[in-house]
Amino acid sequence: MRYYRKPEILVPGPRSVSLDEHTVIEASAGTGKTYTLEHLYVSLILERGAKVEEILVVTFTRRAAADMKKRIRELLLKLVDPTTSQTRVRGQEEHYWEIGTQEVHRMQEALHAFDRAQISTIHTFAQNWLRRYAFETRQLFNGVLVDAEEVFERAYGELMREHFSVEPSNRVWLEAWYKACPAHTSPDEELMSTLKQVHESNAPVAPRFDEAGLQGLLRRLESGDSDSEFLNLVKTAVVQVFSPVVKDVIKRIKASQGLYTYDDMLSVLDEVVRRPSPNPLKDAMQNAYRYALIDEFQDTDPVQWRIFRTVFAGTGRHVVYLIGDPKQSIYGFRGADVQIYRKACEELLGERKPVRLSQNYRSTKEMIDAYNKIFEGYFSDPSTYPEPVSCARPRLTVTNSAGREPAITLLQSPKSALDPKQAMRESFAAEIARILGPEGLVVSDGEKTRRLKPSDIYVLARRGKDGVAIAESLRARGVPFAFYRQEGLFQTHEARDIASLLAAIADPRSRSLRRHALITPFFGVALHKVQSVDSVEGGWHQALLDQWQILARKRLYTILFDQILRTSGLIRRLVLLDSSERSLTNYEHLFELIAQEAGRREYEISDLATWMKRRVEGNMEDPDQDVNLQRLETDQSAVQIMTIHASKGLQAHVVFVYDEGSGGGHTGWKRFKREDGETGMFLAKNSAFDRDKEAYDQDENERLYYVALTRAISKLYLPDIAKKGAFYKQVVEHVLRQTPDAICFEFRPADAEEVAIPKAADFVKTLQSWEPPHTSTLATAGMSDNDVLELKKRVLQMASYSKLKANHTADTSELKVVDESEEIEEEEVQDPDAWGFIEPNHLPGGTKAGSMIHEVLEFVDFRFAASCSTAEQWSEDAKVKALVETTMQKYRFDVEAYWDDVIAMLWGTLHANVADGFDGWISPLSSLDTSRVKREVRFVFPIPEKGRASRRQTKGFAEGFVDLLFEHQGRMYFADWKTDVLEHGDYSRRKLARRVRESYPAQATIYTLAITRMLGINNAEDFERKFGGFYYFFVRGMKRADEGVYYERPTWEMVSTMDAELAGSDRHSWAELLAGGWR
Fold first, then answer.
1. pLDDT in tens, 988-1045
2. Number of CB atoms found within 10 A of residue 32's CB
3. Which of 726, 722, 714 lies closest to 653, judged by CA?
4. How far is residue 666 from each of residues 329, 683, 689, 690, measured CA to CA in Å?
5. In angstroms, rounded to a whole number, what is the distance separating the alpha carbons of residues 417 and 1068?
6. Separation between Cα atoms, residue 560 and residue 75, nearest integer Å
7. Locate the UvrD-like helicase C-terminal domain: which residues (predicted)?
8. Number of helices (H) and strands (E), helices first, in the chain?
9. How far apart are CA 569 and CA 147, in angstroms?
């Protein structure tokens, strides 16, 4: 006889799960719900002799069902293994399974029959039974599964043609709808969208009107009443009148054409099992199962519960287990209704209470203690969290270099921040970089200790776009990140590109379809060249389309899609356009899914093009929500960014929650909680229901943030940036009621690097709105009215510094924007003779090399570089290696060939000892206080025009990016990285001065004027106090000490004189002045 300890919840007792009566298991976050469910399943086999076919398990998604099946099978295999045995503690016999000959036989039998295990989603469960009994139920016999959207569109078209606009009783309400819609809206689209939303929700619309009430609304509308709340009542009445007609027509279309949708499977099964006896399907279901385990039951809806209640709950010979957590019911927008959960508990248990899992196996003791304190008085209904959980893993800890790390850190927005939201996002990125750095966090389970990896960190955003903004801040610091299970694959631009391409392949003779495809990256034709390219008879693009159509007609889709990727030039264009891995990943993933669909449905290319078009337009549904998820574009460890809704069921050592507290507005159709506890819908604003709506939202938000706060294992960061009145502000207030300590809570200002450059945004705004004196009213004196109007209509023109430079070499009389390819060509051929001095295995010259070095220096971690004593130690760090390698590969440099030279350049640059121009030193450069440093700072600089300009000329701006802007000893400096190849490798001060005078006087002038204006410098005293000067760091020369650094600080007289001369110059003189620089 062998023994194996089972979970405490399965040990007989007053707070345990019974194997013989209905039970509700409430599993708070981290309490081991899945672990409990899989052990309950095995208990039914071992202790009640149940066969796998007799145990029904229904869960939320196919992924969850597959995972559950895998875990149960692995547990059975483990217990069958004769080496699996534990010593039974005397006096605790009931805590163990006894595994003898009979139990082994039962488990072996279960394993042999496991392919027949009834573990699936609710839709699969319903579909299997309806198919099996299609004849008996006279339902779905030879039926066709279609999308609900498609059926609704058919029905709506018929309704508009034959009912709404024709029948007098309906036409009067259609006209009422038009009158109730604002002039700037599209009434037809809004009506279709509204009827679709109400039909899909299956929730009653409020208020309801009797016939007298309906007629009263029409009379009041005829009187001209335009009150917004009244017009919403009119719309509600229209929906009340039209919705039953919509339902009837949809039902008739389905019946006449043998169509059904995923939701029909549930509604049909619900209707069939409630038929009176004899009921073959219901009898068969009751005979098939003894036990029903319904997982994630807090996300159920009325139809699903009615099916299980009808079939199993009242028979006396079945046992139903509902497993879930009402605190985590956050999918109301998908139709889930926590009120159904609560009603089901009452119906199933009577006076008995749910069995609650009370121990948290996820988080540290400090984390659990912290959020238990927050949840005291947090829920509107105190019974929501009646029993705070306790820690089951007291040895789990997280520490920093100084000792224990507080469980929850509230980052308070600094009052000096110009943009508190951006400052908070930057602070998040800084904290994440710190956590992953040498002085970062360490976790231990009492046996093993390790540093955190990027994948140990989650960022949870209330809105998807906030996650994207945080990603930009992480990218700026070189922190790897990925969007976890990012939805919307078919809504990406890659999906739209493929839809256009498939349409053109299906009909390559259609000029509009062909030209639409030409502007996708598969052909890469510029919009202004489409007509000329397409006008060539039998051109290269037509040949490609014809070739691809031949493969498509033969249904050789795998070969077709491979050829498209390989021969279209798509991959080369993505590299040239500096696209991320995300685009290529999406293209490959989409082609894979399309090939699967084509094989499954035996589609012709025209069918496939239609299918893809409808997918892109969002006109298809699929209960397997994973199909529309974007794959991760990288396999490396990365910070995971997701919405709070997507985080349910997940956990991470460190979690950052981000919510700006901005709501979605109080308009459109909203859900509310009715007096009977059910959910209804009303059209906001409606004073009769706004309060109910607020109560509904309050409950939803309480549950949402319970989920967010309980994802963290070791550490939680919360921002204090929400506006008053936002629900998230309530969460912050619950935190602020706690007492800061070194264990649970820490309150501190955000490390907002955004404010390091004093009031930079204010000066940028001033700079952007600056106008030279001669563009005042005096400048238009003598001009006709037509000339003045023409001047006002002019489009502002933006040119980069490099484009100004390129233009100056060609024609200084007029500013014009050159084609980007011309600019690159000009840049790449400069100093070709000097390239002969590049030694073997040294990085070649040219724009690509410069861009690559610039990108690494934009994202490299200064602090970490300063902490390293040798280049080898620094370059062997995983993050440094990943940054440099991936950037070199991105620009197609041989990593092995040029690695040593690139590392030498970067290390020499970061560890250069730089004189600050005031008898001080920055030693090394990477030791700069990162809170006083900004990289890649954008500015715009006005280009003046003097006197009366011709109509062809435009007022414009020069745009630039300062590579490095930093404050040192109270003064501001700017710097530019240069990868110029100089003759004989001579990077001495004399040689650099000559190089700057010849090549960079205009850049130095514009950048100095822009920075001094940004700092608000307008006199010599301010200039001396605020401006430190500028550097050109020639990184190839910085491999050797004391070389490669050029420093200059023009005098205030030089700067003010140049500013005045530029303001009074015409375009030609302006360009000449810049070319001459300060001298």
1. 888 898 888 888 888 888 889 888 888 888 889 889 989 999 999 999 999 887 789 9
2. 19
3. 714
4. 22, 9, 12, 9
5. 41
6. 44
7. 377-649
8. 41, 35
9. 36
- Contacts of residue 805, defined as CB under 8 A and 6 or more positions apart, other chains included, come to 1002, 1003
Q: What average pLDDT does range 551-566 have in this prediction?
A: 86
Question: Does the pTM exceed 0.70?
Answer: no
Structure tokens given for 991 = 């040689």
Q: Please, what is the end-to-end C-alpha distance for the chain in angstroms?
A: 97
Kindly give the pairing relationship between strand 481-483 and strand 639-643.
parallel
Token output for 18: 């019974």
- Which residues participate in the annotated binding site? 27-34
Cα–Cα distance between 192 and 187 in angstroms, integer?
9
Pairwise CA distance, residues 234 & 239, whole Å: 9
Backbone angles phi, psi at 63, to 5 degrees: -60, -45
Residue 265, exposed/middle/buried by CB under 10 A (0-12, 13-18, 19+)?
Answer: buried
Structure tokens that stand for 633 in this block = 């574009």
Please tell me whether residue 675 adopts helix, strand or coil conformation: coil
pLDDT category at 36 given cuts 50, 70, 90 is very high
Choose which CATH entry (3.40.190.10, 3.40.50.2000, 3.30.1230.20, 3.40.50.300) describes domain 2-140+265-357: 3.40.50.300
Rounded Cα–Cα distance for residues 18 and 11 (Å): 9
Taking each helix axis as running N to C, give the angle between helix 1001-1014 and helix 989-999, from 0 to 180 degrees, rounded to the nearest 10.
Answer: 80
pLDDT tens digit sequence for 445-472:
999 999 999 999 999 999 888 998 898 8
Phi-psi region of 460 (alpha: psi -120 to 50; beta: other; left: phi over 0): beta
CA distance readout (Å), 342 to 316, 322, 352, 538, 649: 22, 11, 13, 68, 21
Asked if CATH classification 3.40.50.720 holds for the domain at 487-630, the reply, yes or no, is no
Q: Do domains 2-140+265-357 and 367-484+635-659+698-754 have the same CATH topology?
A: yes
E-only strand ranges, 565-667 = 629-630, 639-643, 652-658
Q: In angstroms, rounded to a whole number, what is the distance separating the alpha carbons of residues 932 and 909?
A: 19
Domain boundaries, the chain: 2-140+265-357, 144-257, 367-484+635-659+698-754, 487-630, 760-781+797-838+913-1076
State the pairing for strand pair 96-99/2-5: antiparallel
Please state, in angstroms and rounded to a whole number, the distance separating the CA atoms of residues 658 and 162. 50
Instruction: Let me know: does 891 contact 852? Beta carbons within 8 Å.
Output: yes
Q: 291 with 50: CB under 8 angstroms?
A: yes
Give the residue numbers of the binding site for ATP: 27-34
